[in-house]
Amino acid sequence: MTAGPAGGRSPAQAPHAQSPLALRDAALAGLGPALLPDWLIGQNLRDRSLIDCFPTMRATATDFTTGAWLIYPSRNFLPNKVRVTIDFLRRHLTKPA
């Protein structure tokens, strides 16, 4: 909290960062909640250094700032390393519905 007009109190500005790692570090430091992917904070949730504030809710990637995007050329033949990478990311970043 910071001093507001006429001696009142107003909330301090929330931390802002582009890096999910920086947001995780801020949450671990107690600076406030952060919306982060499970794959990044899974260990923190298991060791209870972070808690899930909304365990019954799910967030979905709705724009470029909340999603993971893989951009590759559209063609009939993809090099095997590209196909393996796509399959790996789908298996490890997708949760069952």
Provide a compact summary of the structure:
The chain has 97 residues and is mainly alpha-helical. Helix content is 33%, strand content 4%. The protein has helices at residues 20-28, 38-46, 80-93, and strands at 2-3, 9-10.
Describe this structure in words.
It is a single chain. This protein has about 100 residues and is mostly helical. Helix content is about 35%, strand content about 5%. It has helices spanning about 20-30, 40-45, 80-95; strands at about 1-5, 10. Strands 1-2 form a two-stranded antiparallel sheet. Strand 1 (about 1-5) and strand 2 form a beta hairpin. The radius of gyration is 19 Å and the shape is elongated. The mean pLDDT is about 80.
Average pLDDT metric:
78
| Strands in their spatial order, largest beta sheet | 1-2
The H-and-E topology, N to C, reads as EEHHH
Radius of gyration: 19 Å
The 3D shape can be described as: elongated
Number of strand elements: 2
Return residue spans where pLDDT drops below 50 for at least 5 consecutive residues: none
Fraction in beta strands = under 5%
Taking the sheet with the most strands, its summary is:
2 strands, antiparallel
Number of helical elements: 3
* Residues in helices, as a percent range: 25-40%
How far apart the termini lie comes to: 40 Å
- Give me the secondary-structure category: mainly alpha
